[in-house]
Write a structure and sequence with these properties.
Amidase signature (AS) enzymes, two-stranded antiparallel sheet, 20 helices
């Protein structure tokens, strides 16, 4: 662990980024015309990591206007369709890599979503795939580049999970999930940003600065997989890998209008990642894919699980990825947790989905009531930082400031002794059992159990910076270890999503969020996503239901 002054370490981190950017530009097809456009676009990257630059109001619009048609013809194609072109050799792997690298360079300047480019390694992967086309074209992910969250180990790179003191922690291995994807024809081409401590629903750190939203630069990208959310929200990556212990896949996916799957613990590898509190098993993080393409999420999950990862990672369960049998589904609508009511665009999104489900013959819709959500915060307030945040605070020896959202996350953390930890783990198990009974209470007279619940991901659409101070809508499912699939529904509408009138807040927290949603114009173009939640190991069923909603 380094103890140099954090400002010196921040300069070192930015130097690594800038060197990788130069290499990426050399790889990409940056002609004079594109270089001129690139130099003119707004930048979310400031003079240093405490300067947040001057982001574009609408990054996605700038992105689409900047990139040449030959790049967009590749990057705007659904990755599942692009795979067909790769497998039929209508396009080469190197051509795809160059297009996505070009897109990623533009995305990075607009939103500050890239921690480090991997042009040298990615080119080697792509060239090898092209050279061995006949023997490798059958691979399920042949030629698709993918992005990885910075905290996921990649050989020869430092893994800091947002703490500058770990810049010297250079790993000599790839994470199991990376190896599995590479063996199936995909390859990493960029590492994306994550925040200080990972425990925030935003994405800001002293190693990269602030990552902004792909649709509205005045809003947050979400966190902790914020770089993944924004990069995939701009469609500058076919798919990415994130991690989730309290909402870290789902909030970035929701805020950026894409799909993101919080998998059931034990489905795909996570055990060799880095984070704070390594060794604690009270609440464990999971891995999952993020993509603008639901078909790609399904394919990635199927590919990883068919590789039998439980033979590599002993923490996994040997459950195949099986397409559920078509049947009539029972789906609950979770309108509110009755602590913080959803904002107008989220409430409208819930209504849109309910109306759609009501029109489908093979769906029955019921109203799903919350089950003591106040217990979620009580239990997780103890189990997220069982050591009183000592492990995290030890990373601040460089003088690195404690950021606002991290401060909120660790506020009130207590250093628990062994018996206190046992007590709160028993509370967790008791809550899980009671909640399961609550879920089963929605079983109908014929014995048809509730298949899924449609729920908010956050009280609002993408939040204003430093305001994401509530995560019960996501962390509840971590406490329960239920899979949750985020999916897009609509976007903020200036006329339909006016603030509620004559509204009486439920409490001070509800009042805080009610006042934040001051006008739909403040959240212009922000996506309004929801999530599908199911019982443990029903990940496939959620994808199946989402595919129905997509049609």
């Amino acid at each position: 662990m380094l103890t140099d002054n954090y400002k010196d370490l921040a300069v070192k981190a930015q130097s690594t980024f800038q060197n990788s950017l130069k290499q990426a530009i050399n790889l990409a097809d940056f002609d004079a015309s594109l270089a001129e456009k690139y130099s003119a676009i707004p930048s979310a990257i400031g003079a240093n990591t405490e300067d947040f630059g001057s982001p574009a109001k609408y990054p996605l619009e700038e992105y689409l206007q900047t990139l040449p048609k030959k790049v967009l013809d590749i990057t705007e194609k659904d990755p599942v369709e692009l795979l067909k072109d790769l497998k039929n050799r209508k396009i080469t792997c190197v051509e795809v890599l160059k297009a996505y690298t070009t897109a990623c360079i533009v995305a990075s300047k607009l939103t500050n979503c890239v921690q480090e480019f991997l042009p040298v390694e990615a080119l080697q992967y792509a060239q090898d795939l092209d050279a061995n086309y006949e023997s490798k074209k059958h691979l399920p992910l042949y030629g698709l580049p993918f992005s990885i969250k910075e905290m996921i180990p990649f050989v020869g790179r430092s893994v800091t999970h947002g703490s500058l003191c770990y810049l010297d922690r250079v790993v000599d291995y790839n994470a199991d999930i990376v190896n599995i994807l590479v063996s199936n024809g995909a390859y990493p081409f960029v590492r994306t940003t994550n925040p200080q401590s990972l425990m925030m629903l935003e994405c800001v750190s002293l190693s990269h600065g602030r990552t902004v939203n792909s649709h509205n630069g005045e809003l947050t990208s979400g966190g902790s997989s914020g770089g993944e959310g924004t990069l995939n929200g701009l469609r500058a990556s076919p798919f990415g890998l994130g991690s989730d212990i309290g909402g870290s896949i789902r909030c970035p996916a929701a805020f950026n209008g894409i799909y993101g799957l919080r998998t059931t613990l034990g489905r795909i590898p996570t055990a060799d990642y880095f984070s704070c509190n390594i060794g604690s098993e009270s609440i464990l993080s999971v891995t999952g894919p993020l993509s603008r393409s639901l078909g790609t999420v399904d394919l990635v999950m199927k590919t990883v699980i068919e590789a039998k990862p439980w033979l590599v990672d002993p923490t996994l369960v040997p459950i195949e990825w099986k397409k559920p049998e078509k049947k009539k589904y029972r789906v609950g609508i979770y309108w509110s947790d009755n602590i913080v009511n959803p904002s107008p665009p989220i409430k409208r999104a819930l209504s849109l989905i309910k109306n759609k489900l009501d029109r489908l013959e093979n769906f029955e819709v019921v109203q799903f009531e919350p089950y003591h959500p106040e217990k979620v915060a009580e239990i997780l307030g103890k189990l997220y930082f069982e050591d009183g945040a000592r492990d995290f605070r030890s990373t601040l020896q460089t003088g690195e400031p404690l950021l606002e959202q991290t401060r909120w996350a660790i506020d009130g953390a207590e250093d628990l002794d062994m018996h206190e930890q046992w007590h709160w783990n028993l509370e967790k198990q008791a809550y899980r059992k009671k909640f399961l009974k609550h879920w089963r209470d929605y079983t109908d007279a014929e014995g048809n159990i509730l298949d899924a619940v449609v729920a908010p991901v956050f009280p609002n659409v993408a939040a204003k910076h430093e305001t994401t101070k509530y995560w019960t809508y996501t962390s509840q499912w971590n406490l329960l270890d239920y899979p949750a699939l985020v999916f897009p529904v609509t976007t903020v509408d200036e006329s339909l999503d006016q603030p509620f009138t004559d509204y009486t807040p439920l409490n001070e927290l509800d009042k805080y969020f009610y006042e934040i949603y001051d006008s739909p114009s403040s959240f212009s173009k922000a996506p309004a996503n929801l999530c599908l939640v199911g019982l443990r190991y029903t990940d496939e069923k959620l994808v199946e239901i989402a595919q129905t909603l997509q049609n």
